[in-house]
Amino acid sequence: EVQLVESGGGSVQAGGSLRLSCAAYGFTSKNKCMGWFRQTPGMEREGVARIFGNGSTQYADSVKGRFTVSLDNAKNTLYLQMNSLKPEDSTMYFCAARPCSWTTWYWGQGTQVTVSS
């Protein structure tokens, strides 16, 4: 069983920073594809940042240049460094992981990020 345990969410002022962590338990795929998604009720899910088995990354245009995704393979932990946060970044963030050959994801429980003006 794969369990994704997130931490690091919280409330900050605009311009501040947060670092989200996602510890992946029982996820032993040789080729790990992981990412961060966010979703506000009534809106579509958005892929914020993804990291692929070859180490390449992708970012949503809305966060590019401000957010950085990384994977510590030794700790089996995914990170999302969020800088220059904006109020529009406020929503629930979800960690996701899959073997890169899959098309479906394991999901974390979600963590709330709130950015005040």
3D structure, described in words:
The chain has 117 residues and is an all-beta fold. The chain has no helices and eleven strands. Strands 2, 4, 5, 6, 9, 10 and 11 form a seven-stranded mixed β-sheet that branches. Strands 1-3-8-7 form a four-stranded antiparallel β-sheet, with no helix packed on it. The protein is globular and about 40 Å long. The N and C termini lie far apart (40 Å).
Name the features.
7-stranded mixed beta sheet; globular; 4-stranded antiparallel beta sheet; 0% helix; mainly beta; 11 strands; 117 residues
The N- to C-terminal Cα distance equals 40 Å
Strand percentage lies at over 45%
User: Which stretches are poorly predicted, pLDDT < 50 over at least 5 residues?
Assistant: none
- What does the largest sheet look like? 7 strands, mixed
Shape estimate? globular
Q: What structural class do helix, strand and pairing data support? A: mainly beta
Task: Classify the oligomer.
Answer: single chain
Number of strands: 11
The number of distinct helices, counting runs of at least 4 residues, comes to 0
Helix proportion of residues, in percent? Answer: under 10%
Give the mean pLDDT: 96
List the helices and strands and how they pair.
Elements: E1 3-7, E2 10-13, E3 18-25, E4 32-39, E5 46-51, E6 57-59, E7 67-72, E8 77-82, E9 91-99, E10 106-107, E11 111-116
Parallel strand pairs: 2-11
Antiparallel strand pairs: 1-3, 3-8, 4-5, 4-9, 5-6, 7-8, 9-10, 9-11
